[in-house]
Request: fold
Amino acid sequence: MLGFFQTGFGSLTWGSIVMITIGAILLYLGIAKKMEPLLLVPIGFGIILVNLPLGGLMAYDNGEPAGLISRVFEYGLVWEIIPCFIFLGLGAMTDFGSLIANPKTLILGAGAQFGVYFAFFIALLLGFSIQEACSIGIIGGADGPTTIYLTNRLAPHFIGATAVAAYTYMALVPIIQPPVIKLLTTKKEREIYMKPEVRPVSKTEKILFPAIAAIIIILLVPKSAPLIGMFMFGNLLYVCGVTDRLADTAANAFINILTILLGLCVGCFMSAESFLKVESLMVFGLGVVAFAASTAFGVVLAKLMNLFLKEKINPMIGAAGVSAVPMSARVVQKMGQEANPRNFLLMHAMGPNIAGVIGTATAAGIFLGMVG
Amino acid sequence: MGVDWGFAGQIGGFGFGLVFVVLIILALAIWLTGLILSRISAGKGEASNKKKGDQGLGG
Reply:
């Protein structure tokens, strides 16, 4: 219009407007509804920024990143640094006590990975490639950094869709899980009482756990090393008692910085050209299938375990194997109290909840080992 | 491009099975560690009680 100065108005497309609206919706969900605000706010704003034309945030020059966010995306996400170091921060925030006190809950964490593989096969049936199906399936693990890490390696063109699906559904856990749990359990099963006391776990056990877990899992699934290694290292910083400054930084400033960068990168990846495709909608649809299937199998597995256990477990804690920590555990706690006000299931549900994080990272490592 | 369903089956079946195997092994290792540590601390407790008992008799 002015010759020497170009505005973005002329370059706005209907796609840009749709994506800006989607970004605004995510901001609304994050701010007004407080749904996963730490991720949805930067993702939502990133979507708005990248879809305002000619901004150059995600510019590339001869294949080299030339924009503010494209540089962070290239060296933070493509180089797999940010998701792995987020896991370090998560490890520094995690108390494995409930899991160590009741190690059989690891089996429930494994069971909840069923949705990953169920969605994997459904995605293949719908025409996705094996790599794409792995990236879609891992959404069922309900773990944002793992989803981004795996998708970046196997199907980077889906990173926006899978990341937004994973984080959105994590926030929707209180809506998705209860109907599935009620469908698969009787009232009597939901009332099963679990004693509130969990056996005390010594400091030595808590210190040995991250080392033992890292050694065992990485020897068996070497490709899980970046995620599991960082997760357990962060946890060791937290529990050893002599690195409180490091643990405090990891659990606060460090993870907050990485979360800002991750959210912005994921949001800025979602330009109209890359996101507004039928495949993205299919990814969203399959994501909820994966979540529901993981919840369902976790509950069914807990019921199967009850056939062999002298002291019965409340089968709802199987649903907490979906690693949306601590939302899944809180859903189980709430439903447990509704069924039986004497029941306090939160600590019992935290075991499978945290086991699910380990299970999902292991599943991602297995996918990478077989397909990557 | 067609899907190699045999390979997909391997990924799904073997992969899901391996997740279980890994976490069961980890569960056993955690249980064993807890058992060993509780036996060690129980042994230390007994030795300490015996020592106190001997000192009481001697004094």
